Amino acid sequence: MMRAFFCLPSDNGLNRILLGISTALRARVNARVSWVPKENFHVTVRFIGEIEPELTIELEEMARRIAAEIPPFDIPIDRLGAFPSPARARVIWAGGKAPDRFTALVAQVNSGLAAFGFPPDREDSVAHITLGRVKGRPDPGLPQALADLGAGLNHSLHVDRLVLMESVLTQRGAVYNPLFSVSLTGR
């Protein structure tokens, strides 16, 4: 068995920007946060969970069919936020309003996974890259830090491929290994 999820990997340029923001937040936030390393930055399309390795063959066929219908697109990375809210943060993120093509991609992946018996997943109106996970109490200063460091954030992530990633949990955190990548070609 392996833990797997579909994602849209971030590029090196955006990773450097997000690492700078993450580093600045780390200096300002007085909470226990597990910060995501820059090589793990991505937009999750769908977390699947434990799967048999053989299933990746059928998942790749499904992903190829979906990728043939969705052209490349851009996701705005223009704000910082936290789930469920900045005041009660569990997840600190950078992201933006989910564009229609992202929403369509998520819906098609969810529909494809339903055919394999996976339960439906919630759809998110914010496409986001997780910067950190708050462990324990959130910092009351986090909302202001997010507002300050998010002001003027105006970037985007160019999305041209869908990746099935394996997540291997280690003592030092999750290590991600791409299982396959399919190019978005659209029609």
List keywords for this structure.
187 residues, alpha+beta, four-stranded antiparallel sheet, 4 helices, 29% helix
The structural class is alpha+beta
Side by side, the strands of the main sheet go 3-1-9-10
Q: In angstroms, what is the radius of gyration? A: 17 Å
Shape verdict: globular
pLDDT < 50 runs, ≥5 residues: none
Sequence of secondary-structure elements: EHEEHEEEHEHEEE
- Our count of helices gives 4
Helical percent range?
25-40%
Report the biggest beta sheet as strand number plus sense, adding barrel if it closes: 4 strands, antiparallel
Task: Describe this structure as you would to a colleague.
This protein is of the alpha+beta class and 187 residues long. The chain is 29% helix and 40% strand. The chain has helices at 12-28, 55-67, 100-114, 142-150; strands at residues 2-9, 32-35, 42-51, 73-77, 79-83, 91-97, 126-135, 155-159, 161-170, 173-183. It has a four-stranded antiparallel sheet, covered by helices on one side. The protein has a four-stranded antiparallel sheet with strand order 2-7-6-5. A two-stranded antiparallel sheet has the order 4-8. A hairpin with a 2-residue loop joins strand 9 and strand 10 (173-183). Helix 1 (12-28) packs antiparallel against helix 4 and helix 2 (55-67) runs antiparallel to helix 3. The chain starts with a strand and ends with a strand. The mean pLDDT is 94.
